[in-house]
Amino acid sequence: MKGLTNDVPKPMLRVRGRPVLEHILTGLRSAGVTEACLIVGYRGEPIRQHFGDGTALGVGLAYVVQAVQDGTGKAPELARDFVGQDDFVLSYGDILVTPDNYRRMAEQFERLRPDALVTVKRGEDVTKGAVVCFDRDFFMTDLIEKPKPCQLDALVRAGKLQPGTPGWYNAGVYVFTPRLFEFTARLQKSVRGEYELTDALTEMVRSGLRVCGLELLGHWADVRDPEVLAELQERSHT
User: Fold this and answer.
1) Residue 36: beta bridge partners?
2) Percent of residues, the chain, with pLDDT higher than 70
3) The whole model's pTM is what?
4) Separation CA 182–CA 75 (nearest Å)
5) Residues 113-147: pLDDT tens digits?
6) Of the candidates 67, 75, 71, 108, which has an alpha carbon nearest to the alpha carbon of residue 181?
7) Contacting residues for 75 by C-beta, under 8 A, at least 6 apart
8) pLDDT, tens digit, for every residue of 99-113?
9) How many whole angstroms separate alpha carbon 54 and alpha carbon 38?
10) Which of 2, 54, 104, 169 has the greatest number of beta carbons closer than 10 A?
11) Residue 200 and residue 184 in contact, taking contact as beta carbons nearer than 8 Å
12) In whole angstroms, what separates CA 64 from the centre of its chain?
């Protein structure tokens, strides 16, 4: 994000006058979420100062510090005590979605009772994120992080990806049962030198667990660079 995160972490960058993280929390609250655990690391103090205990938002907030930034796969384990035996929503702190999607996620999860739910979008460049493959009932069969063209070709040959289509892009918002922690606990570092949450998802499927998909509707944005942020600000003025 160049100089934009010199003083604040990325989830505190403002879109439509409010931090990205505030949009996430208010969207979750509208879907019935009353408690949240914020895993903070890089310059987390501005987050605590802004949100406090969450009273102003109507969401009770707990905080856990991730001292070592070693990937998305280990961060959820820091919330294990907070989660207990409950099902839970997991969102990266820089993902913006149309708020009604949180309600749709909860309803789909209650209806199907899978072990996990992964949200996806159409039309995104999967080589910048992850491509997710599903069976005809929209349960996950495979997931590849930042796939190379040869890997996409292999998915087409295997019948897991339709030729000429961009594939389903992992949108970065999930619902899990506590069984997730069985798989994050035994993660190995990826070729990028990090523990990947997507590797845990893949192992869940390989172990016979059910991971359903849900296509997000409306707006979605990964606030990953200044260009995306500028586009969101421009959109808010039109």
Assistant:
1) 61
2) 90
3) 0.91
4) 14
5) 999 999 999 988 899 899 999 999 999 999 999 99
6) 75
7) 39, 66, 197
8) 999 999 999 999 999
9) 11
10) 169
11) yes
12) 18
Domain boundaries along the sequence of the chain: 2-236
CATH of domain 2-236: 3.90.550.10
| Residue recorded with tokens 């909860």 | 106
* Residues 17-56 as b or e (16 or more Cβ within 10 Å = b): eebbbbbbbebbbebebeebbbbbeeebeebeeebeebee
